[in-house]
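Long-time lurker. I teach an intro course on protein structure, and each term I like to show students one example going from raw sequence to a predicted 3D structure in token notation. This year I'd like something fresh instead of my usual example. Would anyone be willing to generate the tokens for the chain below so I can use it in lecture? Attribution to the forum is fine with me.
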Amino acid sequence: MKTKELILQEMEAVPEPILAVVLDFLQFLKAKRTSSKKQVTVVSKTKEVSIPLALLATQEPEIANQLMVEPMPIRQMCDELKQALTQSGYTSRENIVELVQDVKRERLSEKENQSKTTHA
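-- Reply from a regular --
Happy to contribute to a lecture. Here you go:
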């Protein structure tokens, strides 16, 4: 019997709370395995450089830990975004489109100002 089949067989007899712990451990191992290969792009005012996440973890463990956290489920993210928009007064589609357009204009203005500063 293959290892995967043995694990599946064992899982049938394990209570749900233990399965949750096993799942958490498997996800941890998977993240640890991929994080050693994962590159992170670090951006400063003067340059942009890619470094291995494992190297970042040795130099800036707090930042690396934040990057290795599982992403928020999309449904939860949508719900929280909707709630935040509603609380801020953006209750209609038109309000939200207007907000996005304002942010785009602001970003474009910032880029133009940055470009002028860089070339001056």
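Some talking points for your students: Helices lie at 3-11, 16-35, 53-59, 61-68, 74-87, 93-119. Residues 72-120 form one domain.
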